[in-house]
Design a protein that fits this description.
heterodimer; A: 237 residues; alpha+beta; 2 domains; 4-stranded mixed sheet; two-stranded antiparallel ribbon; 8 helices; 16% strand; elongated; B: 190 residues; mainly alpha; Arc Repressor Mutant, subunit A; 3-stranded antiparallel sheet; 9 helices; 3 strands; globular
Chain lengths: 237, 190
C-alpha cells in the first residue's frame, strides 16, 4: 500500500507478460488536501476524452478540481471499448474506481490485480491499493516519472486507431474519388460530351482487374454510401 | 476499416522516422537544394559530379561544383539523402561508386520529407513516378499504398491523372503522419 497524507499515488505496473498494460502504466495523484487530481491523459479508442466525461468528483463535500487528465489509452478500456475510465464518488466509501480491461488480462492476472479502497475518514485521504504481486516496486520513487517505452510502442499507440486512422481513411477515399474523377462529378454532374483521356480508362480497366484494388474499392464505396449523398456516381465502375 | 494501419515493420519505420523528424523538424531547404533532391528522386543513386551536371545542363541552373557539394553535405546532414551505407529507415543499400566517387541516394526520411513538405508536386504535370518506382522497398509504400494498388499495377499505369492522384494521396498520408508527429512531440512525456 502506498500513500501518504497529502498524496495518494496509484501506480500500475504489472508483470512483463501483461502486455500492453505493463509498459504503459498509469499514474494518479489524488490529493484531497490540495484538492486536485492529476493523472495522465486518457486517450480513448476514438478520441481524447474530455473532462466533461468524468462525473463531478467531490471529496467530503468539496469539489475536486481535475487539473489534468491523462491516461494512455490501453491502460484502461471497457469491454465494449467505449467507457475507458470510470470515476465514481461514493460518499460512504469514496472510491475512485478504475474499470480494467478484462479481456486483455488472463484469469491469473485478474486474480492478482485488485483495486480496493480503505476507509481513512479522519485523514480525508483516499487510499487506493493495487495488489500486483511480484511487480510492485518502490512506487513512491516512481511517482512523477514514466515507464520507459520504446518509440515503436509509442507509435503503435498513436497510429493504431483513433483520429489518425479516420484521416488516413479519408485520404484513401480522396484517392479513389480522384482516380475516378468522381470527386468532380459528385459536385458538378458530368457533361455527357466531356472527353476523358483514354489513358485514364486504360488505367481504370487495369486497376479493376486487380483484386486488392477492388477490395479497397468496395470498402470505400460502402464508406461513401454511408457518408455521402451522391454516391451513385461512384458505381459507374 | 483497416486503412492506414501499419504492420510491425511499419511501426519500426515510424519510430525511426519520428526520431529523425525531431532532429530536423525546422530544417529548411533552399530552392537549389530542392532541385538537387529532385535529381535524387529521379535517379536511384548519384554522385556530386552527376548532380552538378544535371543542375547545369538539364535544369539550366548555374551552380558551381563546390556549391553542389556544399548543398549535398547539408542534405546529408539533415538526413534526406544518405551516402554509401545502409539507410536506417529503408534498410536499402546505396550503390558504391566505381572511381571512388561518393554516391548518394535519397533516404526513407527524405521521401517522407519530400511528400510532407510538398516538395515534388508543383503542378499536375511535373510528376516523379520514380519516387515510388525507384523506392519500392520503402515501408511507407508497403503499408499504405501497395495493399490497395500493387507495385506491378503502378508500373503499368499510363495516365498522369491517376498517378498524380496517387502522389497526392501519399502526400496527404505523410502530412497526416507529420501532424501526428507534431502532436506526439508536444506531449510532455516525450
Amino acid at each position: 500500500m502506498f500513500y501518504d497524507r497529502e498524496c495518494i499515488c496509484l501506480y500500475f505496473k504489472t508483470r512483463l507478460h501483461l502486455n500492453p498494460i505493463e509498459k504503459i502504466g498509469g499514474l494518479l495523484y489524488c490529493s484531497p488536501l490540495l484538492g486536485y487530481i492529476v493523472c495522465e491523459e486518457l486517450r480513448t479508442g476514438k478520441s481524447f476524452a474530455t473532462l466533461k466525461q468524468i462525473e463531478p468528483l467531490e471529496l467530503d463535500g468539496l469539489p475536486v478540481e481535475i487539473k489534468r487528465y491523462k491516461l494512455l489509452k490501453e491502460f484502461l478500456i471497457d469491454e465494449d471499448g467505449k467507457e475507458i475510465l470510470k470515476i465514481s464518488n461514493n460518499e460512504s466509501q469514496r472510491i475512485l474506481y478504475f474499470k480494467l480491461s478484462q479481456n486483455k488480462m488472463t484469469e491469473h492476472d485478474k486474480n492478482k490485480l485488485q483495486i480496493y479502497e480503505k476507509d481513512h475518514d479522519k485523514n480525508n485521504i483516499l487510499i487506493l491499493e493495487v495488489d500486483i504481486s511480484n511487480t510492485t516496486e518502490n512506487i513512491r520513487s516512481l511517482t512523477g516519472s514514466y515507464v520507459p517505452i520504446t518509440w515503436k510502442e509509442l507509435m503503435k499507440w498513436y497510429f493504431d486507431d483513433g483520429e489518425y486512422l479516420i484521416e488516413m481513411t479519408n485520404n484513401l477515399v480522396e484517392l479513389f474519388l480522384n482516380m475516378l474523377s468522381i470527386k468532380y462529378e459528385l459536385i458538378i454532374p458530368a457533361d455527357e460530351n466531356m472527353k476523358i483521356d483514354k489513358r485514364v480508362f486504360h488505367d481504370i480497366t487495369l486497376l479493376k482487374k486487380d483484386s486488392n484494388y477492388m477490395d479497397t474499392f468496395y470498402t470505400i464505396q460502402e464508406h461513401i454510401e454511408k457518408n455521402f449523398e451522391n454516391f451513385e456516381k461512384l458505381k459507374i465502375i | 476499416m483497416g486503412f492506414g494501419r501499419f504492420d510491425n515493420n511499419g511501426y519500426d519505420f515510424l519510430s525511426r522516422l519520428f526520431v529523425q523528424w525531431r532532429k530536423t523538424n525546422f530544417a529548411k531547404i533552399d530552392d537549389k537544394s530542392i532541385e538537387i533532391l529532385r535529381y535524387f528522386i529521379d535517379n536511384k543513386v548519384g554522385s556530386t559530379y552527376q548532380c552538378h551536371k544535371y543542375m547545369n545542363e538539364k535544369k539550366k541552373i548555374k551552380i558551381s561544383y563546390k556549391n553542389v557539394l556544399k548543398k549535398i553535405k547539408k542534405l546529408l546532414e539533415i538526413g534526406v539523402i544518405i551516402k554509401n551505407q545502409v539507410d536506417t529507415i529503408t534498410n536499402a543499400n546505396a550503390e558504391r561508386g566505381k572511381h571512388g566517387a561518393i554516391y548518394y541516394t535519397i533516404s526513407g526520411f527524405g521521401i517522407f520529407y519530400i511528400f510532407s513538405r510538398k516538395i515534388i508536386i508543383i503542378d499536375d504535370w511535373e510528376l516523379h513516378p520514380f519516387i515510388i518506382l525507384n523506392h519500392e522497398d520503402l515501408v511507407l509504400y508497403k503499408n499504405l499504398l501497395f495493399p490497395h494498388i500493387p507495385l506491378q499495377i503502378l508500373k503499368e499505369l499510363k495516365s498522369k491523372h491517376i498517378f498524380y492522384s496517387i502522389l497526392k494521396f501519399l502526400q496527404n498520408c505523410c502530412f497526416t503522419i507529420e501532424n501526428a508527429f507534431v502532436y506526439i512531440s508536444r506531449q510532455d512525456y516525450i
